[in-house]
Write a structure and sequence with these properties.
Blueprint lengths: L9 H17 L17 E5 L3 E7 L8 E6 L2 E8 L18 E8 L10 E5 L2 E7 L15
Antiparallel strand pairs: 1-2, 2-7, 3-4, 4-5, 6-7
Length: 147
């Protein structure tokens, strides 16, 4: 059995918090909201195979023409811009969570790569960049000889 302290005015405290709770549920902030700036950062996954580094970035609402991919040495950069939709004359926003504006993300690759063999595809709002590793950077099994 758990003991709970008796608070005779506790019922009034919880009733007072109900409107605040309702407002917070209606205008819930998400962890990704951040500040109201013109810059946002797309979510990115980076993985590695024996021959490639693979970057996947979620870019909903964009087209391939809105995104640029570049490689400078071992620094892979994606950047672009998501345009804000035009507001209708009699439309008034109560809450806006969708991002717009410019973005840029850069990733330093841990090994040397074949810069002339990089491939980028864009499908259903997902950018996929495949960066082949240089031959000397590929993981190789070494046979152990017995004497």
């Amino acid at each position: 059995m758990e003991l709970t302290p008796w608070r005779p005015l506790g019922i009034f405290s919880s009733r007072r918090n109900e409107p605040d709770s309702l407002w917070n549920r209606f205008l819930r902030e998400t962890p990704s909201m951040g500040t109201f700036t013109e810059e946002w950062l797309p979510s990115v996954d980076i993985s590695e195979t024996t021959k490639n580094f693979i970057l996947k970035a979620e870019l909903p609402g964009l087209d391939a023409k809105d995104v640029k991919v570049s490689l400078s040495g071992d620094l892979l950069t994606i950047k672009g811009e998501k345009k804000r939709e035009e507001e209708e004359k009699d439309e008034h926003h109560h809450f806006v969570e969708r991002y717009s504006g410019t973005f840029q993300r850069s990733f330093q690759l841990p090994t040397s790569v074949k810069g002339d063999k990089v491939e980028a595809t864009f499908d259903k709002g997902v950018l996929k960049v495949s960066v082949p590793k240089a031959e000397e950077a590929e993981k190789k099994e070494i046979e152990i000889k017995v004497k």
